[in-house]
Amino acid sequence: MSKSEVVFISTPGSIGNLVPLVEFAQLLVNHDPRFHATILTITMPQRPAINTYIQSRAAASATSINFLHLPIVDPLAEDENQSYLAYLSLLIEKHKPHVKHAIADLMSSAESNRVVAFFVDMFCTSMIDVANELEIPCYMYFASPATFLSFMFHIPVLDAEISDDFGDLDTELTIPGFANSTVLPTALLSKKGDTYPCYLSHTARYKEPKGIVVNTFKELEPHALSSLSTSHVPRVHAIGPVVDLNGPAQWQDPDLYESVVKWLDDQPPSSVVLLCFGSMGSLSGPQVREIAFGLERAGFRFLWALREPPKSAMYLPSDPANVDEVLPHGFLERTCKLGLVCGWVPQVKILAHQAIGGFVSHCGWNSILESLWYGVPIATWPIYAEQQMNAFEMVKELGLAVEIRLDYREGSDLVSAEEVERSIKSLMDGDHVVRTKVKDMREKSRGALMENGSAYKALEGLIEELMPKI
Q1: What span, in angstroms and rounded, lies between the C-alpha atoms of 79 and 162?
Q2: Which residue has the higher pLDDT, 298 or 315?
Q3: Which positions ≥6 away from 419 have C-beta within 8 Å?
Q4: Where is average pLDDT lowest: 38-42, 48-52, 385-389?
Q5: Residues contacting 271, CB < 8 A, separation 6+
Q6: 8 A C-beta contact, residue 27 and residue 8
Q7: DSSP labels for 368-427?
Q8: Fewest CB atoms within 10 A around its CB: which of 123, 147, 208, 304?
Q9: What is d(CA 377, CA 423) in angstroms, rounded to the nearest whole number?
Q10: CA angle at residue 469 from 466 to 470, to 5 degrees?
Q11: Strands, DSSP E only, in 255-382?
């Protein structure tokens, strides 16, 4: 039986954007068997881990989701004066002819009745042109929180009102999606360079899609979602939490995963603090040493996913070749009965383990949703992207996290060992109010996806838009 096709495209090179988009595609085809999904992928040779993920995911969902690799375009020069976002935006723009050709082929295929929607993500807005040319309904899939979506809609307003750099302002900025004034992402503190114009260019097109699907749920972000519903923006569908509960355990080194789990199995329940800063997160040598001293002083069991900074923004961090060289002398010997230092781990699988009692996180939105799903409280250590805003929301807006820093960013003063010690003690043994609220949100996150839950109803509403009843 032929099925209706739904097409997706994600920002290249970003595992944090791709994984939730794939999971949403899977959610859609699982919920309604009339759909088949095709995910268009743009290859970045600098990030082979993403290709490994795609190969694994394609094998696991061969009948319901097709991964279609777009042809390689002429390589872009890596200009040291060009920001990473500007590089990606140009790379995406150059793929427009290939995307148009791929979707046109799907539309003419005998195996598909019709292409009913084209989902683009937050930085693939140039692909809206392709949807318009082919007369296909275009939707945006937004893998970040509703607060950040509200902020993205508000950037042109701020730009028109404020001529100075936002980072130079003496007054705090109020964003409609936040109940309080908030912390801005690093990329938007300055209007100099090409990152800020890229954001403006993308946000200028956010009102064009027919609707926006956001990976959040009503019970988590009621204020932000309410503010969006009263704004002149496309209809917002809050269908989350969309979480990959298998994580990289299914496509990463199984021996590493098994050795980590074996160690966790020997630890008491809720006794271990996990330190993990995401697929793109890494810290400087001096900061790593402060963390080590803080962990040692705090005295709690720990699992630390330690990563080395990449050689450039085009690459992902890597596991240290020699851990001894980046840690204080004798640290591993002194803490051998207390903690475990390893490379990149399947974070979501680790969070699910009963031994994990707290999570020092970079506050990527996927990580936040994973931690809430398993009821593990966070201590906030934002690094890049919108993570400063996410950390602010979790601590100040929602009371679901403990603060280490809210405005940590590249070039910030080091977080001292004393700060690390104090925050970990608060996370693991101090703030019972936060822990109770996180446990409550765990139940709400699961309830949202159940039949008649808020996210379930939002997904049903989206499907009604895509496939209206005759």
Answers
A1: 30
A2: 298
A3: 294, 404, 405
A4: 48-52
A5: 300, 301, 355, 357
A6: no
A7: HHHHHHTT--EEE---STTHHHHHHIIIIIS--EEES-SS--TTPPPPPHHHHHHHHHHH
A8: 208
A9: 12
A10: 125
A11: 272-276, 301-305, 339-342, 356-361, 378-380
Yes or no: say if 5 and 112 are a contact pair by the CB < 8 Å rule.
Answer: yes
For residue range 227-285, list pLDDT tens digits in order.
999 888 999 999 999 999 987 644 456 777 888 999 999 999 999 999 999 887 889 99
Judge whether 151 and 389 are in contact, CB under 8 Å.
Answer: yes
What distance in Å separates the CA atoms of residue 213 and residue 210, rounded to the nearest whole number? 10
Q: What is the pLDDT of residue 5?
A: 93
Give the list of residues 6+ apart from residue 262 with CB closer than 8 angstroms, or none: none
Q: How far apart are CA 436 and CA 440, in angstroms?
A: 6
Give me the percent of the chain exceeding a pLDDT of 90: 69
Q: Residues 388, 368, 341, 300: what is their CA dihedral angle, to the nearest 10 degrees? A: 90
3-state secondary structure at position 82:
coil
**CA 92-309-149 angle, 5° bins:** 45
Please give the biggest Cα pair distance in the chain.
Answer: 71
Q: Among all chains, which residue has been given the structure tokens 């805003």?
A: 389
Q: Please count the other Cβ atoms lying within 10 Å of the Cβ belonging to residue 157.
A: 12
Query: 176-190, 265-279, 288-302, 323-337: which range is least confident on average?
Result: 176-190
In the chain, what is the straight-line distance between the N-terminal and C-terminal CA atoms, in Å?
A: 19
Between residues 203 and 468, the one the model is more confident about: 203
Amino acid occupying residue 217 = F
Q: Could you tell me where the beta strands, DSSP code E, fall in 17-150?
A: 35-41, 65-69, 112-121, 138-142
pLDDT value at residue 248? 62
Q: Evaluate if residue 339 carries a pLDDT over 60.
A: yes
Decide if 370 contacts 446 (C-beta within 8 A). no
- CA 160 to chain CA mean position, Å: 29
Supply the pTM of this predicted model. Answer: 0.95
Place of tokens 């096709």: 5
CB atoms near residue 98 (< 10 Å) = 18
